[in-house]
Give the backbone structure.
Amino acid sequence: MKLHWEPLTLDLKTTFRVAHGASEQRHNVLIYLDEGVGEAATVPYYGETREGILRYLQSVPDLGKDPFDLDAVLARRPAGSRAARAAIDEALHDLWGKKLGQPLYKLLGLNPNKLPLTSFTIGIDEPEVMAEQARAAKYPIIKIKLGSEKDEAIVAAIRSVTDAKLLVDANAGWTRERALKIIPRLVEYELELIEQPLAVEDVEGYFWLKQKLRQQNVDIPIFADETAKTSHDVVKLAGAIDGVVVKTMKSEGIREALRMIHTARAHDMQIMLGCFIESSVGVTAAAHLAPLCDYADLDGPLLIKNDPYRGLKYDGAQLTLPDGPGLGVIRK
Ligand code: MG
């Protein structure tokens, strides 16, 4: 199978700000394995750059001839760029489906009519600006990015203009003490869940937080995102969290994302399927797993101006998977 690639620069519709920083462009890479396609998204806080991804791709040896022996092909990927490893996995899944003439969700035995609604994400800004975006968005599920001094004012302002289900994502922006102080105040605004309250490496902190919140009778599902990259991380967090955010760029592809989902279910966790700033290639690849998930946060293509592919369809928050073979994505 022949590996080749193409840089993909995505222009964002508006500057996107989270606790880690702000961005206006993303320098991703499309990766092809024969006629299969995948996308490597640069995630700045994981230290990925396009240059690093391109260097990694130069180092990939022959991946073999048999696209049906998924694990053997994937095991030939050298260690290195998480995003590039993910994109190779996506391209392999696309190729697999194309060879068999079937959409990926069918090969995985999943029902495409069982997709959760997607949430719409509002980046960090002044409380009144975020509230205005929440009001204008008209989505039934809104994800609010937090991690500034104005967290409570932001949630209060948004709650005052919408009855939508609210998810909050601190993106590792709080200390343990700050999390313990702010979470009981935020739950007054009827939130569905709180995502990644603590620092990325603070696994112990999740056990600490769970116990402290329980002592105060504060009952709110806590999800891990940045701290939970693979099924191994799910095991480490078992008992401390209520849910996990699965993203193919973290798990290095669909194969491990699937393992992560099953591992999380075995620990009675809920699943949110997420994405980074990715085009329809990367987001549609992930979306084939959406029938297994409770929440979908797949608004990547809605945030960019120049998506080169068509794939997952959006009708407001309603998602429809394409039914073409493999990922089902088509170049515009
Ligand atoms: Mg998150």
